[in-house]
Write a structure and sequence with these properties.
alpha+beta; five-stranded antiparallel β-sheet; 14 strands; binds flavin-adenine dinucleotide
Length: about 400
């Protein structure tokens, strides 16, 4: 797509060129270019869009894709981060947005593990106590209002009262646990609909700690992408300076249907065996090494299914075609703080309420937006350039 493309006589700017516009702060040009993509593809699935783009009379690259072979191949290989076949029905603009924003570029392995980020934030000392020490409850259930007061039901069935609330648990919890969409106490009917109907992907991961980094000595592939049961296998070296260190193999990182299938195999060992048996049919040498350190499946295999996680009930937002309008409603909900008539004192945040579900950027941006909303609502002052006064919807969805 590096030269852009032309569809029905309309020229579309190359995604990489829009990225360059954003980097050099040519925002007006970037907006115009992105709106053209939106106008053509806002109602298209990822699959429908690539059919339109690559089977038309002048496809990018000059060669028309062949059905079904090229689409199946692309579905298995994706755009650099594993197979995309299970997300072919997602909205095309959701996928293109993450490419344009460059979220998959310049990836870095964090050797101490990404959980260290949350642990260090929790350990930050702010005015004499750490962030962790300021956590008041482990779980929050229903959120409701009595007069001007916002009440939270805690995990111990106690009631806590607040003036303002920012909700950062995900869209499913907003509906099912906090009951925010039951009536219009906190959210307008349109925003409630967006909370309820936003699509969350299913996802599943399984990691294995291995005795050694066998793939390095044995010159085996670092990653395998396939259309088999074990879709994507990644061998990870968290200790590049220690040749005798343990290995980590991400044996399965799957989305949607591929992740749903795994829900029927609950036992870790059994699930590992499914993947290893599958891999052994086409890469027996690699499969042979997929045994957890000390053969300890309990301690050395970690897996997580987001769909059955009671705190998330789905991994992250990835809307269907025509549903960017939901992201728009959720993203701008914080601006209710600008008008006492619409201000309910509750603001939504988290990447599920942004345009970039599944990426920390959307979570950080909506967190800042809602924190500013609390300040405005409580009568505080915000500096010029703040998101309540400066961010306006720039696109027609
Ligand atoms: C499978 C997967 C892969 C991802 N990959 C990437 C990636 O590669 N790059 C990237 O940038 N981002 C990625 N993300 C997205 C990233 O994890 C999120 O954007 C980020 O974690 C959002 O931060 P947050 O603090 O808003 O919410 P979260 O990190 O989701 O934190 C919300 C917290 O609220 C808690 N909670 C839920 N319900 C309740 C309740 N009732 N009471 C109290 N607490 C509750 C949850 O347990 C959770 O700890 C991925 C997410 C998933 C699920």
């Amino acid at each position: 797509m590096q030269d852009g493309c032309k569809i029905n006589g309309i020229s579309l700017v190359a995604p990489a060129e829009i990225t360059a516009m954003l980097r050099s702060e040519r925002f007006r040009e970037a907006r115009t270019a992105w709106q053209t993509w939106l106008d053509l593809f806002r109602d298209s699935s990822f699959y429908a869009a690539i059919v339109t783009i690559f089977t038309g009379p002048c496809p990018p690259g000059g060669t028309q894709w062949e059905r079904p072979y090229d689409f199946e191949l692309f579905g298995s290989l994706g755009i650099g981060s594993g197979g995309f076949l299970p997300v072919f029905q997602a909205g095309f603009t959701e996928i293109l947005r993450l490419v344009i924003n460059g979220y998959m570029d310049d990836q870095r392995l964090i050797s101490c593990g990404i959980s260290t980020l949350a642990e260090r934030i929790a350990g930050e000392n702010v005015s004499g106590s750490t962030v962790a020490e300021r956590i008041r409850f482990d779980g929050v259930g229903r959120i409701y209002k009595e007069g001007a007061e916002i009440k939270l039901v805690t995990e111990k069935d106690e009631i806590a009262t607040f003036d303002r609330v920012i909700v950062t648990s995900n869209n499913r919890a907003m509906q099912m646990v906090h009951c925010l969409t039951d009536d219009e106490t906190f959210l307008s009917r349109d925003v409630s609909r967006a909370v309820r109907e936003t699509h969350l992907t299913g996802s599943s991961k399984l990691f294995m700690l291995t005795r050694d980094k066998f793939w390095i000595n044995k010159k085996l592939p670092v990653t395998i992408q396939s259309d088999s049961f074990a879709r994507g296998v990644y061998c990870l070296d968290y200790e590049p300076h220690n040749p005798d260190g343990r290995g980590v193999v991400l044996l399965s990182y799957t989305w949607e249907d591929d992740a749903h299938k795994l829900l029927s195999v609950l036992d870790k060992k059994e699930r590992c065996e499914c993947f290893v048996d599958d891999l052994s049919t086409f890469h027996p040498e690699l499969a042979r090494h997929l045994v957890p350190a000390d053969e300890d499946y309990e301690r050395c295999v970690l897996h997580h299914d987001w769909l059955t996680d009671p705190h998330s009930c789905g991994a992250f937002k990835l809307n269907y075609p025509g549903e960017d309008v939901y992201s728009q409603r959720l993203f701008f909900q914080f601006q209710t703080a600008n008008d006492p008539a619409s201000d309910t004192g509750l603001y939504l945040a988290g990447c599920g309420c942004s345009f970039t579900g599944g990426w920390i950027e959307g979570a950080v941006q909506t967190a800042i937006n809602s924190a500013c909303a609390v300040i405005r609502s409580a009568g505080g002052d915000l500096l010029p350039g703040n998101p309540l006064d400066e961010i306006r919807s720039a696109f027609c969805y």
